[in-house]
Design brief:
- By secondary structure, the chain is an all-alpha fold.
- The protein has a single domain, classed as Up-down Bundle (Four Helix Bundle (Hemerythrin (Met), subunit A)), CATH 1.20.120.
- About 80% of the residues lie in helices and about 0% in strands.
- α1 packs antiparallel against α2 and α1 runs antiparallel to α4.
- The structure holds fe (ii) ion (FE2) (2 copies).
- The site of one fe (ii) ion (FE2) has 6 residues, from α1, α2 and α4.
- The site of one fe (ii) ion has 6 residues, from α1, α2 and α4.
Length: about 140
């Protein structure tokens, strides 16, 4: 049996989020209603994803390398807070038909995603027991 991989599950969820983000980009020059519809779907998926990471995954992380590991989680949570704040600003800008910094937002989101996929999730898969991972996976499935 293939060992449980948090990385595989979260890469799939990242994929969904990027597809929804691309939909927002495609609707950028459309009417406000179509744009907001795409934005709402993206925002909901990202908020759920962030909730899952913070409540079901990051909390289970007991890093082997304590100094490095415990620094990583607060930095990732800070990224989340910044991304969520920028989402609120973008929502306002779209509604008011102001220019929004979509490219800047996309860059930060992709950087965050790459860090999780290259650093955090492989480390979690390596350091957690299969039992711990199964517990996390069942929680993830309740949310996403
Ligand atoms: Fe994240
Ligand atoms: Fe993520």
């Amino acid at each position: 049996m293939k060992p449980t991989s948090i990385l595989d599950i979260m890469v799939k969820d990242h994929g969904k989020i990027i597809t929804l983000l691309n939909d927002v980009e495609k609707n950028m020059n459309n009417d406000v209603l179509s744009m907001m519809k795409a934005f709402d779907s993206f925002e909901w998926a990202l908020e759920k994803h962030i909730f899952t990471e913070e409540k079901a995954i990051y909390t289970s992380y007991n890093p082997v390398n304590i100094r490095e590991g415990y620094k990583m989680v607060p930095e990732l949570v800070q990224d989340h807070n910044e991304l969520l704040n920028r989402l609120r600003v973008m929502r306002f800008d779209i509604l008011k038909k102001h220019r929004c910094d979509f490219e800047g937002f996309k860059c930060s989101l992709l950087d965050h995603k790459t860090f999780e996929e290259e650093q955090l999730y492989p480390r979690l898969d390596e350091e957690l027991t299969n039992e711990q991972k199964l517990m996390i996976v069942s929680r993830i499935k309740e949310i996403v």
